């Protein structure tokens, strides 16, 4: 395979070098480069002389192999599965053939804070997997991953059973199943949050001031589909309101008189009203499968302003000349916001984020391990020797028994505060996202949410940068993303601007 | 003044490998002639004692090649030698420990290093290899860093008892095992017409001081071939007397 990684400036790319015999599928490539398709990694095509490359931007995304290489909890698993299914659906909408998608653990990239997955689409004629075996892919993950033991693991078995069911594997069926599973937990506490509370057809302007937990009451509605949408003064739990339909009064609930706006119809008859309707309908469809996505978002502290993305909302084409702005329908009665019950129960308190920094365990008592015992008077203990050494052989006090014990205590010393960080797992993660990493650096924003992993293989150690924006440096030299670089005792590591030393003892 | 040098080593009768490493060389510098010698006795049995001793010898050789010249620019100060050699010890110590930890083995080495100029000698010692000065008597220039040597120094044992003590082979210091290693330095004035000897413990267990003086009588050491012949005789004598360890010696004759 002619895959490699490249880090240029702040970005990390997965690069595919095309073989001269391969032919690019122009339509698919055009689709990919002209649109920002959610769920597929953005791609650039470059050519120099006869060498052609496809470069996929995977900055700040972690390969699935790294994510599933550690312990995974329910949310992450269901989130990633749902996101992959959604990406497949989106690809279909864009008429991209599923066989040009590469779906394996090394080519699915995940944003670990949202669990959004991006797939690699290889727009090459007759390339790709003739039989993209999704069933085997999902099952492989379920069977080979370690799951969080503190949770109820039923969902894993249910997923496996679902995958084992006979018949043709349908991604959307599977997607629905995954969605149901993730809604299961929430069904009990907040049933009514799923559906928009029906609004009376023509509420008077004052109506929307009534419900107390309320987004700001100015005219501009929140941007169309922003998962972490918020206006400046939005109090924390209000993200719930955002995905709710910004309904024009006539069509808060699907009514018989509402026309079905499909994507093509919208293209042909683009106006603000149709766009609004389209958004509503799309949201409604998403609602039914996407409640869990909303829950994910509520975990983020909402106090911060959402970064308004310049990207058009999912599914819409950027129309030149048209600003991508929230729908502002002048002349219509002020929009109503559906009254929401207090969403506190759904809101996962951000308390864990403000917990004391996840520092290493209290200083290890075995720091004194290598101080030899006091010299013995008299003849001391009986000591064991191997065949080679005899009773006259020189030995070191305290090390008479040629211990074969493993003296390796791999750890990092963080230079800024001299903290000792024990590397106690085969894949040890470092980053800013407390829920994902093993050592969290919360106070330094230059560190990525998932920044780098230390990987232990027998008695060898290496560092892997997980496509971070501010990079990882080994003894001063920057390393390419997603590429293992060996480290030894005394190696100086730098994550963005945070210095560490790797030591074996 | 001139220097005659010789180095000999033997795996001995019992050991499969020779874990001693040695180096000796004459140097001509702007400050005159000098000799640099280093001897390392590796330990760890099957576990690569020779790797430890060779690593350390190589580090000292590199030092001699690269840094000894610049030291000549002014009078060699004791403190400079001490600083530079201690640095070598600490670095190599860390390196060898890391190797051992990474590979799950225990390996280490002693070291005795000597820089002999026309005026002065500078000696570094870790462990139980030794440096001697032979005139009409045998003078031991270094102190062993062993349990029994300390007991003798503390007055708990006599030297004779120390020879027979069951702990006589237990070291207090070694390069490559423990993080904190304490090399000791010795300085003195070069005696004209003396023979200086560095040796591993295997060379000296079975030979008496009188025999050393007899074999290496300075007046009789007229050439390097004589030095070498004497060393080989002593090695054979050791083996005859059932010495089991590796046997190594470096000799330097100071000729005026």
Tell me the CATH topology of chain B.
Answer: Phosphatase 2c, domain 1
How far is the N terminus from the C terminus of chain A? 39 Å
- What is the mean pLDDT of chain B? 93
Largest sheet of chain A: 6 strands, antiparallel
Write out the CATH superfamily name of chain B: PPM-type phosphatase domain
The backbone outline of chain B, from C-alpha atoms, is globular
| Count of helix runs of chain A | 8
- SS content category of chain A: alpha+beta
CATH hierarchy: architecture of one domain in chain A: Sandwich
Q: Portion of residues in helices of chain A?
A: 10-25%
The CATH architecture of chain B = 4-Layer Sandwich
What low-confidence regions of chain A span 5 or more consecutive residues with pLDDT below 50? Answer: 188-194, 201-256, 298-316, 325-390
Indicate the low-confidence ranges of chain B by residue numbers.
Answer: none
CATH class division of chain B: Alpha Beta
Please indicate the percent range of residues of chain B in DSSP E strands (runs of 2 or more).
Answer: 25-35%
β-strand number of chain A:
22
Largest inter-chain contact set: A-B, 33 and 38 residues
| Global shape of chain A | globular
Determine Rg of chain A (CA atoms, Å). 28 Å
Oligomer: heterodimer
